[in-house]
Design brief:
By secondary structure, the chain is of the alpha+beta class. It is built from 4 helices and 3 strands, in the order H-E-E-H-H-E-H. Helices cover 33% and strands 12% of the residues. Helix 1 crosses helix 2. The longest helix has 16 residues.
Amino acid sequence: VAALGAPSGSAAHLSQSELDALRAKLISLWNPPAAVSTHTELYVVTIRIRLARNHRLIGQPEVLTGGNGPLFEATRDSAVRALLQAQPYDMLSLTTYDQWKEIDINFDPKDVFGG
């Protein structure tokens, strides 16, 4: 399972510095509700993004994880907001575009709250 900001799939083709920069940017922008800190495993959200060569999103992020209740919805919505605010994703090199044009990202509250 990929950690917050760490793409899955072709991640091995991206440099560690690219992955670290992506992770740091997303963590700095993501603000999940504090109430999810006690049961973080219930609020992991996986989102697929598609990126253009200009490092901007193509369309809306696609939430792949299902969940119920206002806390899950708030966690999901805060993750989507972080992805929108993180644009442009200029920490990703154009030479590896084929590896990052579509990325699945896991937002795990334990990456924010510890645990």
